Amino acid sequence: MWRSTHPVWAMAFRPFYLLAALWGAVAILLWGFGFQGTPSLSGLYWHAHEMIWGYAAAVVVGFLLTAVATWTKQPPVSGRLLMALAGCWLLARTAALLPQGAPWAGAAGTVFFLLALWGLGSAVWRSRNVRNYLTVLALAGFALSHTAFHLGSPPQSALTAGLMTVAGFIGLIGSRVIPFFTAKRLNTPSPPAAAWLNHAALILPLTAGVLMLRQNTSIAAAAAGMGCAGVAAVQLWRWHRRGIWREPLLWTLFVGYAFTAAGVAVTAATAYRSAGIHLIAVGGIGLLTLSMMTRTALGHTGRPLYPAPSGLTAAFWLMTAAAVLRVVATAFAGTAYLHGIRLSAVLFALALLLYGWRYLPWLLRPRCDGKTG
C-alpha cells in the first residue's frame, strides 16, 4: 500500500473516499462526546474546521480529481502526487489534534489545497475545458477560506465562507450529475440544459456567504439565500421523474440537494442560524457526499451501478435521521439538546462506518473488470 503503484493510488477517489469516511466518523464522535479541541484550535472551531476542511474537503477533492480526468480526457492524478496530497491531508488532521498544532494544520492544509488546485487546474487548462474554469475558481475560493482562517481572519467568517463554498459545489455539481444519473437509471430523457441555473446554484450560496461576512443577517444576504432555495426548487422540479423514490441512489441526491438549499436560505434569511448550518452540514453535505461516494466509486471500480450495495440503504437512512435529529435538537436546551447532538453524531458515524466497511476492500483492490483506475 505504501508503493506508488498500489491500486489505492490509481485515482483520487480511492484514498480520499476512504479517509473521509473514517475521519468523518471519528471526528463527529469526538465532538459529540465531549472533545473540546485544543489550546490552539478550541471547541466549536475545531469541530467546524475538521468537518469543513477535513471531511468535506476530502470528498470534494477526491471527486474533482477523479472526475476531471473524464471531463478533460487528461491522465488522472495518481501515484506520488496523490500520495503527497493524502499525506498533507493526514498531516493536517493529525496536527489539528495536537495542543499547539493549529499552525501546522494550517500549513499542511494549505499545501494540500495548492496540490489539489494544481491537479485540477492543470488538467482543465491543458484541455482548454472552459466549462470547468468556474470549478477551479470555486476550489480556489475554498482554499482561500481555509488559509484566511489560519491567517487571523475572524474564525466565524472564514468558516461561513468555507461552508457556503461547499454548498455552492453541491449546487454546481448536483446540477450536472442529478439529472444525468436520473436519466440513466430510469431510462428517461434529460431535461434541457439550463447553464444559467447551474451557475446560479453555485453563485448564490457564495454570494450569501460573502454578504454574511459583512453582517450576519441583511436583506441582501436573505435575498441571496432565498434565491438559492428558489433555484433549487426549480431544478428539482425539472429533474423529478416518477420512480426516483424507489431508488436510494437517486432519492438521496434529491433530498441532499434540497437540504442544502433550504439550509442556505435558513442560515442567510432567519435567526435560526444553527438549524440552517446543520441542514447544510448534515443533511446536505452528509447525505449527498455519502450518496456520491457510493455511486461514483461503483463506476470507477468496475462494479454494477445499481442496486446500491447491501448495507448502504441503511446508511442513507441513518444519515437522513442524523440530519433531522440534529436540526430538531437546535430547538432544545440542556440535557435534551446534548442527547440530540450525541444521538445524531452516532447515526452520522454509523452511516460512514457502514460505507467504510462495505467499500474498504473495493477501494484497496484493482478494478474488478481489469481496467485501469
UniProtKB/TrEMBL annotation:
Signal peptide range in chain numbering: none
One Pfam family per UniProt: NnrS
Name the UniProt record assigns to this protein: NnrS protein
Transmembrane segments: 12-32, 52-69, 81-98, 104-125, 132-152, 158-181, 193-213, 219-237, 249-269, 275-293, 314-333, 339-357
InterPro entries xref list: NnrS (IPR010266)
Organism: Conchiformibius steedae
Top-level division of the source organism's lineage: Bacteria
Keywords annotated in UniProt: Membrane, Transmembrane, Transmembrane helix
